[in-house]
Design brief:
Blueprint lengths: L1 H5 L3 E7 L7 H10 L3 E8 L2 H13 L7 E2 L15 E3 L1
């Protein structure tokens, strides 16, 4: 909750290697509870893990844009519009 409260009201959440443990569920809940507006960008080189992350986040009502890319190259797939990025 404390970390969520320190983020701006509008941001991009970039998750490097979302995996399968759904660790972000606690964070999603805190962000939604505080009325934060964010887009979730899971980044991975494995399409299976990206699909799992997308399904999980969308089932939790989170707008999601999966990026299949090495971490070092994902910047080119992110919007460059000045919105705060939380990685």
């Amino acid at each position: 909750d404390k970390l969520a409260s320190e983020l701006p009201n509008n941001f991009y959440y970039i998750d490097l290697g979302p995996g399968t443990e759904h660790k972000e569920k606690y964070f999603f809940d805190a962000l939604k509870k505080q009325g934060k507006n964010f887009v979730y960008y899971p980044v991975d080189i494995n399409s299976h893990f990206l699909e799992l992350a997308k399904e999980f986040s969308e089932n939790n009502g989170i707008k999601t844009v999966p990026i299949m890319s090495p971490f070092e190259e994902c910047r080119q797939f992110l919007p460059d519009d000045g919105v705060y990025r939380f990685v």
